[in-house]
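Tip: read the tokens left to right.
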């Protein structure tokens, strides 16, 4: 979730209404007001609406919702006459380029902070931590076109942003804070992506850092936007969102020629939707005219085509509209969820606890009795947390996310123990001892089942503690088990054991390996264990998702 700072003075000017009206209604467009200060509010938006990650985008949406300005926003784009070439050697490195010229910028402290915050929010929501998309914003008047996107030797030198001396690109990856943060994206390539002007001045080393020469300041009047990445659609979305946000602030947008194609166009897409289908899904009887009016309130272009069809123009910045139902959701927002009639279900049933939840509740009670605190890690995680940090081989049945929104959420968890170690990392500043446990679903080759895991960290945590706790848990849940020497690389050799029940390995316990502690930046020993809840008596016999 993205938390956006909305300065009241700037937002009121863009929205053309007062802050009380905005704060009273902003939740209805899909936000959560985190906090309200004297001169600003911090508001949270879902990652599927990156067009709302700036005061300009919020103001545009609010003007529509409040009826101040409805219908499709119009953005005129004229050719700048500037050309951008792309080096074919980038094809296997970072091949996609998007660009635009933004003229007539009038920055103050609030608006310059807005565009910089939008840039970083898009790096997270659209760019997958810059690996998929990286955005560069430059003072156009500090360089001269045409511009060239090239594959450069790693020894090339330039002055990176916030520095005064030249550094090679390898030195930037090693010494510059942004270089250290994002080096993993490009460090394995023999050549590095670089953007230069006609005089060979460096504008940007994407996706790492801009050059100091093109720093944007409050005095900047004209901007060159470059957006590089590996996904053409995502690059285009980032360009459209930034250009339209700047246009809302009063700037003019000009296109750039890339490979003979002028980009961006900022043109809407068009689709035709059914009024009756929308009415059926929402449970509200709508006419074509009413539905078109509601869509215009959400800043779509909408014209009726008979009694049951509406031609909808979707703004270029609405990357979340992928299906007719996405438009129907906006119709519901404009209509008002509070106005939808709630109806009782037609069928009444009597519920009872599922056997899986009965077992899970029993295990939770035991852990709490042993002095452990329950935590609830996310279901999505990454290969780095699950496997590389744990020194384990990647699970052959790992379920991957097809279109992850960040590098931290690329797979569904196959184990719980790594996520507890991640929790310990996040709580390094807390007092010791720390004893945590979790009980929950894991997924193996699309089969969902339950695991339990626990960790204890303090200066004396050791194998004996892990063994004692595991023994207590299995005695309480009536599982007859034995301990056998383990080869699990997440634990110290000689201080680890597999848990065997009914002739099968159902878990492991022991003292976490120092290399794993280092990977999670933990300073104290950790006694840990994890086991499969399918070994608990009473677990449903038929495998599958409960």
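Filled-in amino acids:
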């Amino acid at each position: 979730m993205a938390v956006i700072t909305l300065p009241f003075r700037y937002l009121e000017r863009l929205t053309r209404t007062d802050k009380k009206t905005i704060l009273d209604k902003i939740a209805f467009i899909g936000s959560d007001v985190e906090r309200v200060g004297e001169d600003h509010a911090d508001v949270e938006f879902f990652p599927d609406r990156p067009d709302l990650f700036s005061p300009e985008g919020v103001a545009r949406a609010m003007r529509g919702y409040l009826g101040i300005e409805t219908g499709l926003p119009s953005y005129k784009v004229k050719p700048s006459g500037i050309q951008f070439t792309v080096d074919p050697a980038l094809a296997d490195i970072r091949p996609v380029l998007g660009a635009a010229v933004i003229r007539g910028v009038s920055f103050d402290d609030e608006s310059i902070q807005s565009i910089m915050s939008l840039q970083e929010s898009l790096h997270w929501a659209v760019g997958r931590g810059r690996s998929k998309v990286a955005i560069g914003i430059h003072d156009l008047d500090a360089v001269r076109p045409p511009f060239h996107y090239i594959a450069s030797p790693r020894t090339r030198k330039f002055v990176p942003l916030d520095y005064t001396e030249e550094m090679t690109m390898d030195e930037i990856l090693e010494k510059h804070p942004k270089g250290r943060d994002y080096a993993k994206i490009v460090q394995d390539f023999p050549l590095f992506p670089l953007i230069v002007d006609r005089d060979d001045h460096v504008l940007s080393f994407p996706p790492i850092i801009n050059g100091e020469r093109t720093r944007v300041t409050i005095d900047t009047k004209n901007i060159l936007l470059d957006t590089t990445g590996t996904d053409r659609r995502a690059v285009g979305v980032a360009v459209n969102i930034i250009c339209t946000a700047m246009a809302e602030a009063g700037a003019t947008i000009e296109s750039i020629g890339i490979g003979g194609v002028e980009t961006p166009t900022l043109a809407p897409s068009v689709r035709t939707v059914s009024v009756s289908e929308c009415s059926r899904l929402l449970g509200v009887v709508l006419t074509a005219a009413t539905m078109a009016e509601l869509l215009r309130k959400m800043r779509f272009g909408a014209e009726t085509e008979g009694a049951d069809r509406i031609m909808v123009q979707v703004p270029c910045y609405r990357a979340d509209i992928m299906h007719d139902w996405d438009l129907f959701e906006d119709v519901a927002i404009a209509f008002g969820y509070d106005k939808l009639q709630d109806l009782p279900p037609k069928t009444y049933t009597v519920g009872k606890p599922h056997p899986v939840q009965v077992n899970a509740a029993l295990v939770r009670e035991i852990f709490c009795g042993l002095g452990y605190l329950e935590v609830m890690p996310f279901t999505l995680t990454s290969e780095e947390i699950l496997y590389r940090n744990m020194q384990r081989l990647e699970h052959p049945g790992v379920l991957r996310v097809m279109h992850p929104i960040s590098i931290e959420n690329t797979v569904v968890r196959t184990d719980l123990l790594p996520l507890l170690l991640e929790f310990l990392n996040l709580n390094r500043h807390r007092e010791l001892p720390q004893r945590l446990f979790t009980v929950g679903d894991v997924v193996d080759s699309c089969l969902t089942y339950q695991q339990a895991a626990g960790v204890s960290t303090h200066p004396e945590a050791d194998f004996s503690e892990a063994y004692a706790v595991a023994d207590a848990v299995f005695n309480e849940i009536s599982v007859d088990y034995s301990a056998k020497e383990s080869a699990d690389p997440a634990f110290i050799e000689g201080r680890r054991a597999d848990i065997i029940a009914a002739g099968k390995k159902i878990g492991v316990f022991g003292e976490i390996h120092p290399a794993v502690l280092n990977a999670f930046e933990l300073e104290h020993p950790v006694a840990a264990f994890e086991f499969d809840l399918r070994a608990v008596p009473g677990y449903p016999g038929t495998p599958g998702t409960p």
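Residues 3 and 44 are 4 Å apart (CA to CA). The chain has 15 helices and 27 strands.
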